[in-house]
Design brief:
This protein has 2 domains: 134 residues, NAD(P)-binding Rossmann-like Domain (Rossmann fold); 102 residues, 2-Layer Sandwich (Dihydrodipicolinate Reductase, domain 2). The protein has 8 helices and 11 strands. α1 crosses α7 and α5 packs parallel to α6. It has a 6-stranded parallel beta sheet, with helices on both faces. A 5-stranded mixed beta sheet has the order 7-8-6-9-10, covered by helices on one side. With 242 residues, the chain is of the alpha/beta class. The mean pLDDT is 96. The radius of gyration is 19 Å and the shape is elongated. The two termini are 24 Å apart. It binds nicotinamide-adenine-dinucleotide (NAD). Nicotinamide-adenine-dinucleotide binds next to α1.
Length: 242
């Protein structure tokens, strides 16, 4: 597969390494200083673009790919207030887009575990639930996209929680509290903590490095071949497990 990388930062570099290991070629890398490459023949020759940039630039990058009818895999977080617009473009213009707030297979298993535990805890009101997420100090969005996905998994399943709130205390017991910490170079830790007067149960995912995210993005690009429409990690995992 010929891959164009949009955003050649920490994730872009890791994705390039893994894609080459898996036999793909990187035909173009676009960053802030070479935006004219969107019109270069090497970019136009790509089968798929993998986009990891910044919250405020992601949507514009998707539009540029869609204008060229290029399928996009994106992991940029913090832009999903425009998710419905992207889904609409996938239907109306038959564009191809794969989004995951977290491409790690381990985290996606953790998402499922989180929902199962939340369903059980819906029947156990003696437990209060909160979340803690820790990332490196360069991270721009807070809480993390992964933290928001986890929060949604809890809110869908626990009736006594109504909305998430980034705080350590709240007067409203219906708030699901998320504490976001930014420490050193931590790739990403998410912990869901259930606490009663008697005990504490927690589930935790701790990324050791960025390899899991980068591999997932390359697997997503491979999965998209020959497809159109909007796809997520759930589709990718279902295709593996069926
Ligand atoms: N979904 C996931 O699994 C996952 C995993 C890790 C990081 N992320 C997200 O991916 C994004 C990038 O993370 P990172 O750690 O690589 O950040 P980074 O800061 O190391 O890299 C981002 C790169 O994008 C470039 N860039 C900015 N604007 C651009 C534009 N308009 N066009 C092209 N390039 C542009 C920057 O110059 C930089 O090189 C963040 O939003 C982060 O939260 C997602």
């Amino acid at each position: 597969m010929k891959i164009a990388l949009i955003g050649y930062g920490k994730m872009g570099h890791e994705i390039a390494r893994i894609a080459i290991d898996r036999g793909h070629s990187i035909v173009a890398t676009i960053d802030v200083d070479n935006q004219d490459t969107f019109d270069a023949p090497e970019f136009l020759s790509a089968d798929v673009a993998i986009e990891f940039t910044r919250p405020e630039t992601a949507f514009g990058n998707y539009q540029k790919c869609f204008e060229r009818h290029l399928p996009v895999v994106s992991g940029t977080t913090g832009w999903t207030n425009r998710l419905d617009e992207v889904k609409k473009l996938c239907v109306e213009q038959r564009q191809t887009f794969f989004y995951a707030s977290n491409f790690s297979i381990g985290v996606n298993i953790f998402f499922e575990l989180n929902k199962i535990l939340a369903k059980m805890m819906n029947r156990e009101p003696q437990y209060d639930v909160r979340m803690e997420e820790i990332h490196h100090i360069h991270k721009l969005d807070s809480p993390s996209g992964t933290g928001i996905t986890l929060a949604e998994g809890i809110l869908e399943n626990i009736d006594r929680k109504q909305q998430w709130k980034e705080a350590t205390v709240s007067e409203n017991p219906a708030d699901l509290l998320i504490e976001s910490k930014r420490v050193g170079e931590v790739p990403g830790i998410h912990e869901i903590i259930y606490e009663s007067d008697a005990d504490v149960i927690s589930i935790k995912h701790d990324a050791k490095n960025r390899k899991g995210f980068a591999l997932g993005a390359v697997l997503a690009a491979e999965y998209l071949q020959g497809k159109t429409g909007f796809h997520t990690m759930q589709d990718l995992l279902n295709s593996k497990h069926n």
